[in-house]
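Dear colleagues,

As part of the handover before I leave the project, I'm documenting each prediction I ran so the next person doesn't have to rerun anything. This entry is a single chain, and its sequence is reproduced below.
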Amino acid sequence: MDEAIRTVAARIGSHLAANETAHMTSRNLSTLGASDAVKLNAGIERAVRKRLRNPTPVDVVVTISENARGFLVVAQIREDVEMVSFRIAAPSTAPKASIVKTMIWQQEQPILDVAVVDDQIIVLDTSSVTRYDHRERAEGTLLGLTFPRDPRGRLEIAGDSLIVHLPGSTCRGTWKPLALTCESGGEFVAGRNTIESSAWPPHYSRAHLGEDDLVAETDGRVHDYSARGPARIFDQWGSDLAAVCDTKRVLTSGPGDRESRDFATLYELANGALVSVSDPAEFPGPVTALSSSIAIVRNLSTGWYEAYSLTVDCGR
């Protein structure tokens, strides 16, 4: 599928002038599963995306069909038609790994991160850090910050200590009692939702996987940096990923937008390729933050934010 995405995107691009950009619509007329269809269409759309000032949109219709030999991607650009075929290998008989999700918190205010310690839940949202004891509010502290669009933040707990990573600032203290002192600077850039460091380009998340570093960069793609050779690029994921299973596997969000139902899937590197080793764990809305044990989701039906604990089966 990855090769089909690259080939279709290149052929679409060959029909566009320098000032033109593709306006894609898609349909699936095949037996290809919904999650794979979303990955394929999102991958093509990202691959042909251009950053232009006042671009001229050109309608591109992408249709997924199939015949006796496999699946077929048909792209129509004006009067031109491009077709690329691909096949998906038969599923392995080996049991797939599992991702068990359990909703542990929900609220209307946007959640940035959640940490669970025994019967305590610490919630970081866009206004405060709050500790709940047996789900009852125990104490909280206001942050008094102005957050960018699609804000990100992270809780880091070690023993009784608490570090809160926020855009443009870092707060340190304890979570019980909840006491924090904040100072400017940190891993999240002020006024933005990206992470910047001297070692990597600006990015949303990063996972160290064996000898590889997978970096979700601002171009909407995941770049695989390895000492073995040039960086590879993957288009089928979202901007949130986390290493799990002793950094042997990576947990990723899907490639959908802010108004799409999302999912988390487990991958591992095999012979230089990233292979899915689990069925997708589906959510009722887009994943807005993801760690090895927590997923934050905005429920499209209610508009509320939900935190799910994730248990990944690493033994299979």
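The longest strand covers residues 56-67. Residues 2-86 form one domain.

All the best with the project,
I.
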